[in-house]
């Protein structure tokens, strides 16, 4: 059956390869005209049968800064973008639900990209897969008192989760078994959603792929400063922000990004706003405490060379003085580069800088989050994704786990160049089996490879690489220095 009945009306989907696909499903009213910067409003009902066989537009955005590693995409853009994409094996039954939040630094991306086709997760894992498009950049995170509260995109995601609770049974899903899965900014959003009382009961498990906990939400003061900077660039008033043409708004966003950019720092200019979580330690503590209090099991992990996607694009070696300053800022001692040099013999300065920022932005904080959540009473599983093609300069970079998560084709992704198709397919099957096992309420094991729950005293970690298996503390070298 390719017709489902939702509370807003009937949808016609598309059957392909054992999966029913439904696209461009509105979960909120279009945030256009007077609704720009407004919290999401309920979607209108529609008469008759709505066609849900084709994707709609994605949120307005500039090109991705990681396209050199990941490849690029070209899709129509519009503020009318608050839609869901659903893949399900059948509209009968009550399967676990996986809700996907894409990454892109809150600046780029979309859940409806072909990269994130959930057909394999739905069919092979017997789950219902839901991908969310949400507002990005200033349209999603502008904080300007009287105009925008800065968390419109978070409210979009919450509206999508409420829509899932109300409608997912019609797609064969169980609203009491929702796993929220996100990568990068999507994982960062999950941390914030954990801390919000208005998300209680909307999801029951979470998978955080490459969360950047030190990239704490903006304080209201900082977010207002950035909003006023953008407004002044545009030469307009607070009310005038509601009618700025999209190209001018995107251009102002990029000007702001360049104005606040710091060496070897990837923090975006527009992101969620929370005074309570504006400090990285507080952000980790609040998210961990909420996971424990709500008994939400977590899978948390990173890729081994996260920052290679950012630092290996330019073949030129970075400025040694700037590198020394960044080492001193993050470790307290510029000479710490020698520890990294011993760990990566013959490594370039760019590689050592990448190792440093990977550790301090992703790996160490992921471990801290796992420690704190476990101590708060949540069950946690920790992993590291190590695989990469032998010859790629991007190594096991940020986002390289995504083609394995979805088992989709990424034909222009330099990070996959030279990959053995058989190895890629087998590793994708293992990762996907772990994630869907977790969604079904089990440990994220793969066939014949048990994955013990995390314990702070030994920090056992599953490694997804050329060889799969559990290892000891992946950051043990650092704690021993």
Please describe what this structure looks like:
The protein has 481 residues and is α/β, with parallel strands linked by helices. It is 34% helix and 16% strand. The chain contains 15 helices and 16 strands. A hairpin with a 4-residue loop joins strand 15 (461-464) and strand 16. The N and C termini lie far apart (60 Å).
Fill in the keyword field for this structure.
34% helix; alpha/beta; 15 helices; 481 residues; single chain; eleven-stranded mixed beta sheet; globular; 16 strands
How is the topology of this model organized?
Layout: E1 3-5, E2 10-12, E3 14-16, E4 19-26, E5 49-51, H1 67-70, E6 83-88, E7 95-101, H2 119-125, E8 128-132, H3 137-141, E9 143-144, E10 148-149, H4 152-167, E11 173-183, H5 185-195, E12 205-209, H6 220-234, H7 246-260, H8 280-293, E13 298-303, H9 308-311, H10 320-331, H11 337-343, H12 349-375, E14 380-385, H13 402-406, H14 421-439, E15 461-464, E16 469-471, H15 476-479
Parallel strand pairs: 2-5, 7-8, 7-11, 11-12, 12-13, 13-14, 14-15
Antiparallel strand pairs: 1-2, 3-4, 4-6, 6-8, 9-10, 15-16
Helix pairs in contact: 2-14, 5-8, 6-7, 8-12, 10-12
